[in-house]
Amino acid sequence: MFPINETMGQYSELFMLLAAGTYTVAFIAFAWDLAKSSKMLRAVDLRAAELAAAEAARVPVGAGVGASSAAVDRADSDVAGPVGRAERPSSSVAHTATGNAAGIGQTADGAMRYSAERRAPARVAVALTVLGVAIHAAGVITRAIGSGRVPWGNMYEFLTTGAFVVVAVFLVVLIKRDLRFLGTFVVGLAIIMLVAASVAYWTPVGHLVPALQSYWLIIHVSIAVMSSALFTLTFAMSALQLVQSHRQKAIAAGGSDKLGFMRLVPSALSLENLSYRINAIAFVGWTFTLMFGAIWAEKAWGRFWGWDTKEVWTFVIWVVYAGYLHARATRGWTGTRAAWLSIVGYLCVVFNFTIVNQFFNGLHSYSGL
Amino acid sequence: MSERVNVEKKSPVPGNTPDGTEPEGTEPGGTEPGGKSGARPGGKSGARPGGKRGVKSAGDASPVAAAKAEAVLPALGPMGMLRWAWTQLTSMRTALFLLLMLAVAAVPGSLFPQRPTNPSVVTQYIKDHPDYGKILDSLQLYDVYSSAWFSAIYILLFVSLIGCVVPRAIAHYKAMRSQPPRTPARLSRLPEYGTLVIPADAGIPASGAITDAAALLKKRGYRVDVRDHDGARPSVGAERGFLREVGNLVFHTSLIGVLVSVAVGGLFGYSGQRILVEGDTFVNTLVGYDQFTPGTNFQSSQLQPYSVQLDKFQITFDRESKGKFGQPIDFKADVTTKETPDAPAKKEVLKVNDPLSLGGTSLYLTGNGYAPVVTVRDGAGNIAMQGPVVAKLQGDNYYSSVVIKVPDAKPEQLAFAGFFLPTAFVTDKGVSFSGDPELINPQLTLNSYYGDLGLNDGSPQNVFELDVKKLTPLNARNLETKGIVLTPGTTHTLPDGKGTISFDGVKRYVGVDIHHNPGQLYALIFALLAVAGLVTSLYVNRRRVWVRTGTHADGRTMVEYGLLARGEDHRLASEASAVRKLLAGAWDLDDSQSAPSGGVDNDRADTTLPGAGAEQASPDHPAADFIQSTAGSSEPKKDQ
Ligand code: HEM
Questions:
Q1: Closest-CA distance of chain A to residue B351, Å
Q2: What is the pLDDT of residues B204-217, one digit of tens each?
Q3: How many Å apart are CA A310 and CA B121, to the nearest integer?
Q4: At B324, is the pLDDT very low, low, confident or very high (cuts 50, 70, 90)?
Q5: DSSP string, B99-152
Q6: Which long-range contacts (CB under 8 A, 24 or more apart) does B430-434 make?
Q7: In chain B, is it the N or the C terminus that has fewer CB atoms within a 10 Å radius of its CB?
Q8: From the CA of B103, how far away is ligand 1's center (Å)?
Q9: If DSSP states are collapsed to H, E and C, what string results for A318-366?
Q10: pLDDT digits 0-9 by tens, A178-202
Q11: B120 touches chain A (CB under 8 A)
């Protein structure tokens, strides 16, 4: 057992504070990006709508591939017909359609790839987030050195390390996909987690209780945290999907666009498709979490499954997301309903982490409080 | 209603599903998107789902209503009803519903105390809530996971699962053995479509091009079938990714395996507990256990008489961090084991997270505490009891309760009850507490009693509890005699010549759980299989490719190809461009032509002749019959 290093622990807390501060600035930048792009997109859409109107006189609506009606394209994509369906992930037409459409360049496109358009505030925000995550990493590492073990042995450490993983996973996904529209959410959540950790769950560096001294702690918990981070992203996407699909319906019904900032967000169907893919990965991760948890429980407590509260909720989460995967394959359950399942699943994850850890008694009561 | 369903309904084109592009769904594999609903046991697989899909695809008002009508209309009597019920049960929608029910049903088990883990807490809970405690009990809310309703849900779920897996497996077996599906009349309707033109001077005829294409696809892992090789429009059908469905089937079957393994463990397993004070030996026979829970089919001959002796138990306490000062950070039990009574002795270490394996069982370190060693002499001066007394943990820092029963004392039986404190402190108000877990100032504070302990009538008694109702107190704080306070090495003389009690020293004890679960290994194997199946089913893509060629009037060889995914497949587009690149490379076509999607010839056109599309297509072409099939997910039509 490594000795405790209190000084390192203090450095760690300082880094966490600095990271939270940097994230706060990044949050403001992301919000600024949303506001600014939304304004710009409105102007582009207006222009495009005029163009579309002119074109509509010439070509029957919905017949042309990527008829350059950006407004229709973005807003109604799921209801308007072929153009919307062109966003199906595997369809090559997606590239043509979204590529051709003027104005859509500003938003994440259907496949959520980056477009050529530069969004200065978003770039600043991402840069700040990268800086924040680097400081955050220093915080996590010094915490690990300070306690001489993996930095996830109590609630404080779950939260600070978990927040780090959420942001890191977000940044990794950003390499390939333009999910910057999720920035305010992800960074905002990281700030909340860091603040909650420092205010409500603060614990000085310390040793692990014997039941946690196992390599399974490293395997089981790290996979759980990773999966939870992915579930966090899909939660945000599913929530946006609901809002977007509501908005699309309103616009399709001839209503006005009350949620202008949602212009920056891809169509409901694109959100659904990508969140399905991320959820599928996270579900595999959660399956491992559950399995490894069972193997560890067998080693530590002598039975691999005993319906301990934590086990119950892990199981519930697993079943909800299995339901989500099935919903995607069940007619009448795709789209909005699937999004609700994804949201409910995430609420269970949060519940499992906060309420169950603190207020339920069970073998898993290692919150360190 | 979901977006996707809207899309389907709006589509003006009949047969807009991927399956619709296949003429009449003749291929056996055609059952499988509707497999759950359609391929009922005994049902003519394919016939029904095909029909239903046809109805729906044609944009008929309510496919659900149609399906219901179809299912209900033929008033078939009991058999028909059964069949109908079975179809309902094995539908994807029912499975989803049952899954969600299972999630909801599992929750109360975390809200109320559960009998299997905490029987005493349940009893207390019922006492504390006289208004509804009993009602909850009648609803089996203290035995959620063995309750009738919870069992009903998961049994239905697994019946549904079997009803779904078996026909699917049969259908898939057939699909794997049959040829790739017929080449659709209009490849341009497929979600991925493109054309290539081989110049006339290349000297590759339509038939040669098809042979090349078939060879390339075969090399890429597709199973291929060339049709009409020497005709005017030869084509090749290719299919790959059968593992996807295999993975899915393995996953679902393995879940059944996990459940069965758990059940087997319950039948043939057993578990028990034993407390061992330093120096004690446990022998694995029924009498060796303090507590024993056999499985339903347990036989005592299953027990192998190994032995475990606790030599020494050590605890390391945290002396570093401020917040956790005095918390145990390491438990270590040195034991001597013998596999059989005659086997050589072996030194081993038992730790938390590091169980011992002996005679098919596992031994776990689950508890520990102090056992003060006492000697009790009766009024006649004879030793009536001597040895360690297990003290039960009550509070912080090993503040523990002690009960000593001395039935052998004469003329009257003696009993003691009180507390053991490893590091005794007393507050100003006279309340004593333990200040540290280590033996810094060990102390026994006891009351003493005499009378009939009631041990002779044979009814079992809890060794940790003393019923003082029928006993007469000798020493107590509120009596003149006061309570007994002992430190190691001291002796207290009881009043009225009833005898003496000496505190000789302190030993440690451990609580050991012993488990035998024969289902465990199988549960693990099935769980691993399930994960492997899951990953396969999620990440292997099932795809079909068709290539058709023809010779243009001017001698060029026109090639068109189309791709179709079955199930979620977001990489179909990149597969399309990979196939395109391969074909172009094989025929040395120039780069401009091998440009992936988005080029001129990737626009969809209604081609009756291969190559015609390439000519007609232009960005302005309205693509009259341009259909967007549900490439990414052909699956939403699975259900009825
Ligand atoms: C304990 C109950 C069940 C669990 C935990 C479960 C879990 C899963 C999971 C995780 C998947 C995703 C894998 C994939 O998409 O290929 C899946 C797929 C599937 N499950 Fe289940 N399942 C259960 C019961 C059932 C039942 C009872 C049925 C049939 C009535 C069923 C039918 C299917 C089908 C058809 C798929 C394929 C979906 C697709 O290809 O997208 N499942 N199941």
A1: 9
A2: 889 999 999 999 99
A3: 18
A4: confident
A5: HHHHHHHHTHHHHS--TTT-HHHHHHHHHH-TTTHHHHHHTTTTSGGGSHHHHH
A6: B433/B395, B433/B396, B433/B397, B433/B399, B434/B395, B434/B396, B434/B397, B434/B398, B434/B399
A7: N
A8: 15
A9: HHHHHHHHHHHCCCCCCCHHHHHHHHHHHHHHHHHHCHHHHHCCCCCCC
A10: 888 899 999 999 999 999 999 988 8
A11: no
Whether residues B354 and A299 touch (CB distance < 8 A) is answered with yes
Structure tokens given for A187: 């960074």
For ligand 1, is residue B566 a contact (CB within 6 Å)?
Answer: no
**What is the CA(B252)–ligand 1 centre distance, in A?**
7
Q: How far apart are CA B520 and CA B530, in angstroms?
A: 15
Taking only the tens place, the pLDDT of each residue in B347-374 is 999 998 899 999 889 999 988 999 999 9
User: Does residue A322 line the site of ligand 1, with CB under 6 A?
Assistant: yes
Residues of A in contact with B101 (CB under 8 A): none
Picking from B205, B129, B183, the residue whose alpha carbon sits closest to that of residue B550 is: B205
Least confident of A50-64, A238-252, B445-459: A50-64
pLDDT at A369 over 60: no
pLDDT class of B110 with cuts at 50, 70, 90: confident
Are the C-beta atoms of B392 and B400 separated by less than 8 Å? yes
CB of B153 closer than 6 A to ligand 1?
no
> Is ligand 1 within 6 A of the CB of residue B171?
no
For residue A290, how far is its CA from the centre of ligand 1 (angstroms)?
18
> Residue B607 — very low, low, confident or very high, per pLDDT cuts 50/70/90?
very low
Q: Give the integer Cα–Cα distance in Å for B97 and B93.
A: 6
- Say yes or no for a CB contact (<8 Å) between B570 and A89: yes
ipTM greater than cut 0.85 = no
Give the pLDDT of residue A44. Answer: 73
Consecutive H or E run containing A252: helix A222-252
Confidence of residue A360 (pLDDT cuts 50, 70, 90): low
- Return the DSSP state at A110: T
